[in-house]
TrEMBL record, chain A:
The organism of origin for this protein: Salix viminalis
SMART domains, per database record: Kelch
Gene Ontology biological process: negative regulation of cytokinin-activated signaling pathway; regulation of phenylpropanoid metabolic process
Superkingdom: Eukaryota
Protein name according to UniProt: GALACTOSE OXIDASE/KELCH REPEAT SUPERFAMILY PROTEIN-RELATED
Domain called F-box: residue spans: 7-46
One protein family per Pfam: Kelch_1
Automatic annotation (TrEMBL), chain B:
Name of the featured protein: SKP1-like protein
Pathway(s) served: Protein modification; protein ubiquitination
Domain SKP1 component POZ: 30-88
Family annotation (InterPro entries): SKP1 (IPR016897), SKP1-like (IPR001232), SKP1-like_dim_sf (IPR036296), SKP1/BTB/POZ_sf (IPR011333), Skp1_comp_dimer (IPR016072), Skp1_comp_POZ (IPR016073)
Highest taxon, organism lineage: Eukaryota
Length: 284, 184
């Protein structure tokens, strides 16, 4: 790529300047000229920012909004809190709130799934906070433009309580969960955020409602969950999908010590084998 | 955020002619003559000159050479500032203190105009002074912090090659780039 980013400077030197701008400045950078736009939008630019630690760390959280006039009252039962995204920059200690999802002015869908993919944030599924209808919507927040865009809706059955994991690059995986009739699902699919396309993976060996999905080093680990007959009685098993060979490996028995919801599970992976580090105690 | 160049046109670093550098440093250390693209000869202490990887390898390739080293891509003005930086850096080599070094680096950058910074980058690149290149890259990124699109274009002398339709779309998509920026 023999393009000039800054007149008089070699390409890689000019890029050395651009990778050091703060993420908030990237919206300006893409608006300068064509070569700056294509440079900053390239995956290589993001990779370099990460590799040289010149990017900023951002922590995105889902928090319930407490309205000031309600804060002193006891929260009434039946009132569902309004959830929204908050953003923390650990380096500066700055907090801000992300704009609401388009069409969800009453807060995020309940039980929606969230993952970071590349420099985007992806939000999927959940229940509409007002109608409690299952949402198949996909929303993507871009930190450069600071705007939300709609992705292609989740195909197939109206799926909820599925496992969700990101490869951190461009793909998110949707595994198990249940359909509109509360049938637990074995099916798995993936969404490519860059191409805005869905594709299917082979089915898992078991139905896994409320399972946990974790992506590490080219492997999608799906942990726990339960089949339709076992409503709420969680399994201790896990299974692993290998992206390179495009197939599910053997089911791992007894990965979990106790048969409970794996939602708060933390794991470490060594040579493709998962080790459970810790889990939160108490209700789910 | 107010540390960026308030008045880029006001401060101009005076170029130090070779005689001044010569009197500054006593006759003890070995000197090396470096000739810039605009034919100025800088007499530089060997320890400072060895900070320039390009010059260092010149001597490694031809150890017996005592002639003046030509620096065909290096004009005198930015070069004098680069020498200034390297002299400071050497102090920290003998006595490493990261906090003081950072302070010294930011002092160095603060005094420079936008033009100075942009002129020094190709020099630091040609002479392969990695520390300085890092400092300058960061300084440039800091200088365009919270600035308007128009300011950044004129800072680097970049032409706007978007069509008016594309520009309108960008303003819509990246509204926050066009709001709440510092005055140019």
């Amino acid at each position: 790529m023999a393009m000039e980013l800054i007149p008089g400077l070699p390409y890689d030197i000019a890029r050395g300047c651009l990778i050091r701008v703060e993420y908030k400045q990237l919206a300006t950078v893409v608006s300068i000229c064509r070569s700056w736009k294509s440079e900053t939008e390239s995956p290589e630019f993001r990779r370099l920012r990460n590799a040289t630690c010149t990017g900023q760390k951002l922590v995105v959280m889902v928090q319930a909004r407490v309205s000031p006039d309600q804060a002193s009252n006891i929260v009434k039962y039946g009132d569902s809190p309004v959830y929204r995204f908050t953003l923390l920059e650990p380096d500066t200690g700055d907090w801000c709130e992300l704009p609401p999802l388009p069409g969800f002015s009453n807060g995020l869908p309940m039980f929606c799934q969230v993952a970071s993919v590349g420099s985007d944030l992806v939000v999927m599924g959940g229940l509409d906070p007002v109608t409690w209808e299952v949402s198949t919507s996909v929303f993507i927040f871009n930190f450069v433009s600071a705007t939300w865009r709609r992705g292609a809706d989740m195909p197939g059955v109206r799926r909820s309580f599925f496992g969700f994991a990101s490869d951190s690059d461009r793909t998110v995986y949707v595994v198990g969960g249940h359909d509109g009739d509360k049938n637990a699902l074995r099916s798995t699919m993936a969404y490519d955020t860059a191409r805005d396309e869905w594709f299917s993976l082979p089915d898992m060996a078991r139905e896994r409602d409320e399972c946990k999905a974790i992506f590490r080093h080219g492997r999608l680990h799906v942990i726990g969950g339960y089949c339709t007959e076992m409503q709420g009685r969680f399994e201790r098993t896990a299974e692993v999908f290998e992206i390179a060979s495009w197939q599910w490996k053997n089911v791992i028995d007894d990965l979990l010590e106790d048969a409970t919801c794996p939602k708060d599970l933390r794991v470490r992976e060594r040579r493709g084998v998962l080790h459970v580090l810790w889990r939160l105690c108490g209700g789910t | 955020m107010s540390s960026s160049a308030e008045n880029p046109t006001l401060t101009t670093e005076i170029t130090k002619p070779s005689t001044e550098i010569a009197t500054e440093t006593a006759q003890s250390a070995k000197k090396i003559n470096l000739k810039t693209s605009d034919d100025q000869i800088f007499e530089v202490e060997e320890s400072v000159a060895m900070e320039f990887a390009t010059v260092k390898s010149f001597f490694e390739d031809a150890p017996s050479s005592t002639d003046t080293v030509p620096l065909p891509n290096v004009p005198a003005k930015p070069f004098s500032q680069v020498i200034e930086f390297c002299k400071e850096q050497i102090k920290f080599k003998a006595n490493p203190d990261e906090t003081e070094k950072k302070k010294s680096n930011s002092e160095f950058v603060k005094e420079k105009t936008n033009e100075d910074l942009v002129e020094m980058i190709p020099v630091a690149n040609y002479l392969e002074i990695k520390d300085l290149l890092d400092v300058l890259n960061q300084a440039v990124a800091d200088r365009i912090q919270n600035r308007s699109v128009e300011y950044v274009r004129s800072f680097f002398g970049i032409d706007n090659d978007f069509t008016s339709e594309e520009e309108a779309l960008l303003r819509e998509e990246h509204a926050w780039a066009f709001e709440d920026v510092d005055e140019d």
